[in-house]
Amino acid sequence: MKKKGGDGRRLSGLNRREFLKASAGALGVGAALIGGGIGFPAIARAAKGKVKNPIKIACQGVASGPLGNNGDFMNKGALLAVEEINGKGGILGSKIEFNFRDDESKVDVAIKNARYFVDTWDADFLIGIDSSGVALALGQIMPDLNRILIVTHGSTNKYNEEIVFKKGIKQCFRSSVPLYQDACAGALVAKDFPAKQWAAILPDYEYGHTSWKLFKQTLKTLRPDVEFVADSFAKSGTVDFSSHIAKVMGANPEAIFSVEWGGELVTLIKQCQLFEVYKKVKYWMAGMGGAMDVLQGLGREYPEGLWGTTRYWFLYPDNPKNKAFVDAYHKRWNNYPSHNSESAYTAVHMIKQAVEKAQTLEIKELIAAMEGMQIDRPAGPCYIRKEDHQAVYSVPWGQIKHDPKYPFPILTNLKVFPAEKYYLHPPFTQAG
Amino acid sequence: MIPAPRNHGNSAQGLGAGLVVTGIFIVPLVLGPFWQYLIANILLLSLFSLSFNLLFGMTGYLSFGHAAFYATGAYVTGMLLLADFSLIVSVALGTAAAGVLAVILGFFCVRHTKVYFSLLTLALGMMIHAIVWKWTSVTGGDDGLVGIMRGSIKIPGVFEISLNSLSHYYYFLAALCLLGIYILYRIVKSPFGLVLNGLRENYGRVEFAGIPIRQYLQVTFFIAGLFAGLAGSLMAPLEKTVAPSVAHWTKSAEPVMASLIGGPFTFAGPIVGALAFIGLKELVVRFTDYWLMVFGIVLMVVVLGFRGGIVGFINDHLRERRRLALREHP
Amino acid sequence: MGERLLYLAVVGLSEGMALWLVAAGLSLTFGVLRVVNFAHGSLYMLGAYLAFHFIRLFGGNYWIGFALGPIALAVVGYVMERFFFRRIYRLDDSFQLLLTFAFVLIFDDLVKFIWGPVHQSVPTPPILSGAIMVVGRPFPAFGLFIIVVGTAAGFALWYLIERTGWGALVQATATDREMASVVGVNVPRLYTGVFMFGAWLAGLGGVLAVPMRSLAPGMGESIIIEAFVVVVIGGLGSLRGAFIGAVLLGMFHAFGVTYLPVFELALAYVTMAIVLIIRPWGMFGVRE
User: What pTM, to 2 d.p., does this model score?
Assistant: First the structure.
């Protein structure tokens, strides 16, 4: 039998002196690491203008792993707003200071970052969050942190329906449209398709399950003749959808619905191409199919005619305000804004508007200022619903088309519905 | 049976430990919530790492699935608290559940060579992760358990202290962590601990001495799982949330790195390592997003040159100094 | 019904083949060097990214990436073995595992640092971009290509190990390193060679993955777990076992998704755990 040497070290029965010195040394090392890098005494800020200066906004998003560019788009959108506002004198004379951290899509990391932001960095506002699970967990502790949280991506409807409306955690807001966009608006689009047999490939977590459930419910009401013939749930991080595609295509559907997003949607669409899914299935709807990272990820490989939506489509609405935003973003970052960018940008502007209205940073008054707030954002006219603090605005569904003007495909044949028509409404007892 | 060595003078060791403990308890009086939270996490990781190192540092068995026990403690405690059980009962049962799991898994794991042991613990750990993710009705699935309340400590009719505020809960957590650490210390210093130590140094000789190794390993596995479960149980009310990531192999990697960095060959090593790990991560994250790379490099440096970790390094240095001093003044 | 099963079997086979190349390198490294290389998944990821890089560099030509990618990985393998692994062979198994783990962490961030967090994608080469009818249903031509390459690699490996002089040396060293060195085998050089070859295989796996999947940092992690399962089922150190194990796992997955979807997540780990408990050396592995 091969003898592999150990390390040749002995578990020293530490004698007292060594133990004392070792622990002192180690504590010193640790304390130096922590203290040296972290602690600056909280500088008392002179009150300049009406509110404290600077106003601190902290943001978290996924900046690593296959969904990593979400955080990147988010960061850039928020920074654009911060620079714009600071360039014009700030909020009531106070400058904005901005900070971004990677939450790795992990609940414990996000909570730790949030505590750091609030307790040590003195953040006045928290924005961001891509993952639904993280949004829910962070939302739960907002009463402890007592700051306003504006979620800019995480799409679970439990955030507005349960955390804000049912549990009454008033510090929570959301600037982006939730899964009503995928499921309910999607059903409104789908009802006009001749297709009767529907299937789905979805991510195997709450967002996937709830979206499909709501889509089926809504579509069945509008079109009693449809049938749902197959579905397949793919675990998080799937890179090979072959088995899922095989399962779903085995039921011969006429139409497929999906809420896979980011890199996983890119992979799914590529593989569907290879399996010639789009030759047989004429109607494909993807809730995140119009997101900038997917459009850029697929590029010329994105088949035309597929339906997709997002949480903000940069060419809609076609008005000067939106154009100005897109141009400014393009000039600053040499790229086009994704939904994450617009949503984070809007969140910062929401903060500005609220502080200007309330003339203070007191939480209760800021909440009152935000409830019902009308805001004209790049995505169009929008208001923050009082009961569940959800931003209400319309986003189009559209079909993919390659356009020589842009280095990625765009959405055309846009279908827009008034947001009130497809959002669910309080008291949320029945799917609209 | 080898007689246990006498404890060399408890006084100075006790003094050092006493200073640290006092420091820990003073924290909420002088520092804000962020620091309390940070030190609570360091204590939890210390306990978690010590439990892991009972296997690795002492017997040489590297478990890549230790988060399974941590997660069991966290989820069971979380679920019980959500069902309005008292805090003490929830923590106790959470820890016990982890212990039970450790007995079951230990039976399967300790039959093999070290490589298979590591792979099997990895597989089992990820299985627990999969269960936790899919069993939505019980564990909340990928959303996890949210809204866990910290509850209170009460003696009916006498008093009730609410632990809802962070500083109150901090004391509870610190007390239990330190108790756990102390118990582990006594175990390590006991005759039982001596045998384990022998396993790492010379497996064959211990076997030859007639000691039933498998049983020792199973008991060790149980203790390791139990205390990891305690750490997890205390985490749930701290964070008020338990998500599936606590069962992922990336969580299992934390005590591994902490023990390595601090030094797996002494008792204090994993504690020092926990401090260094959390401190380093806090620091690095402020400057760069690429903290994985930083840790990879640190790990590489440790494995290639400093396998005794920080504590080992300091010890070697002290030993050198003493050797030189003795040479001059024999 | 039979047609459906056959179709699913082909799907499973193509999933398995991609996995086999990674598992082969892993098994080889363990069989000869006795190192369990966690970083093997990262090598696969690097292979995919480097191939992508070459493809972009040479105007979208997939075949250049196909040729250069694995070679680049062999170079990476050389550096890893010669300058890092060689230092730790005498150490405890656990420390070797930890060194490979350190590489995983470093490579993950390195890829992000060089190519960014945005996922990348490359079209299938024109010759292989269509679909071929398998029992009346379309199946990607590239998927069949993967099956062909995987099988060819399997055959070539078998030939190399069983029928060539170098293969005999490898087998001898795997069985008894000291003896081999006594009879004149330059063991350190052999080790480097084997490791480089394993890296080359992982690189080939990566190159094959590029057209069908999107690239993102962290893709190494998912495949290494699957590769571990394969290698454990087949037996650590057995190439034949890795091949069969990969095919089996691919089939399990394909059939599982259709017929037993709720177990998909845990399937790989449960299988791995069961094998490790009941028969740790797998089907054809070396009993330690």
Answer: 0.83
Pairing, β B145-146 against β B152-155: unpaired
Q: How far apart are CA A209 and CA A218, in angstroms?
A: 14
- Show the domains of chain A with their CATH numbers: 55-177+317-392 (3.40.50.2300), 180-310+396-422 (3.40.50.2300)
Q: How far is CA B314 from the centre of its chain?
A: 22
Largest CA distance in chain C: 59
Categorize the per-residue pLDDT at A46 as very low, low, confident or very high, splitting at 50, 70 and 90. very low
For residue A61, what are the β-bridge partners? A102
| Interval C176-224: pLDDT, tens | 878 888 888 888 888 999 999 999 999 999 999 888 877 877 788 878 8
Quote the pLDDT of residue A122: 92
Residues B137 and B142: their CA atoms lie apart, in Å, by 11
User: Taking CB atoms and an 8 Å cutoff, what residues of chain B touch A205?
Assistant: 133, 141-142
Chain C partners within 8 Å of A212 (Cβ): none
Name the residue of chain A whose CA is nearest to B140's CA: A206
Q: For residue A57, list its beta bridge partners.
A: A98, A125
* pLDDT above 60 (res C156): yes
User: Which residue segment(s) compose the domain that C21 sits in?
Assistant: 10-218
**Furthest-apart CA pair in chain A: how many Å?**
83
CA–CA dist B50, B65 (Å, integer):
15
Residue C38 lies inside a defined structural domain of this protein: yes
Across A119-130, average pLDDT? 93
Q: Is A402 in the C-facing interface, judged by CB distances under 8 Å?
A: no
Cα–Cα–Cα angle for B189, B191, B193, rounded to 5 degrees: 55
* DSSP secondary structure letter of residue A233: E
Sequential DSSP letters for A401-413: E--TTSSS-EEEE
Pairing of strands A197-203, A227-234: parallel
Could you report the predicted ipTM of this complex, rounded to two decimals? 0.84
Segment holding A383, helix H or strand E: strand A380-384
Task: Report CA A52 to chain centroid distance, whole Å.
Answer: 29
Residue ranges of alpha helices (H) inside A155-289 are 157-158, 180, 186-190, 206-222, 242-249, 262-274, 277-280
Residue of C269, C270, C275, C281 to mutate, interface with B, max B Cβ within 10 Å: C269
Contacts of A9 in chain B (CB under 8 A): 265, 307-308, 312
pLDDT score of C265: 66
The CA R_g of chain B, rounded to the nearest whole Å, is: 20
Report yes or no: C163 and C45 within 8 Å, Cβ to Cβ: no
Does the pLDDT at position A17 exceed 70? Answer: no
How many domains does chain C divide into?
1
